[in-house]
Amino acid sequence: MATEIEHKFLVRNENWREHAHASQDFEQGYLCGEGPASVRVRIECEHANINVKAAAVGTVRAEYEYAIPLEDAREMLATLCVAPPVVKTRYWVKYGAHTWEIDVFGGANAPLVVAEVELGAVDESFERPDWVGEEVSDDARYYNHALAFEPYSQWGA
Domain containing 23 — which CATH number? Predict the structure, then answer.
């Protein structure tokens, strides 16, 4: 079984930006609302994939991802999504032995910025950069699936 082991954190400042070595825009939409898994379609530049991820909260979840034709992904985003797509720019920052992914959300989820570090084992240690704040791995509101249905900009409403 494919497993994702990932810690998710809020970002406290912009200090990570000077160390970012790459970035990529993403647009992703969800094909179902509730159930035992989230199913999303994502476009990353000229590539697309479909992803099935266990609808569990925490640092360890089953995850499966497969490449699909770009035109199929565009059609799915336009016609099959059950909520507006989530848009974000992902930046990669090497820190210690790991590469962190920093997601800067746009649209209805701006100005949310979240950092994630993916691990190879549950007990693997990692260094926390000074720009990383509160861990939100166990807070379902910060999952992309949740942000599609209840965007960050609406939390205070």
Answer: 2.40.320.10
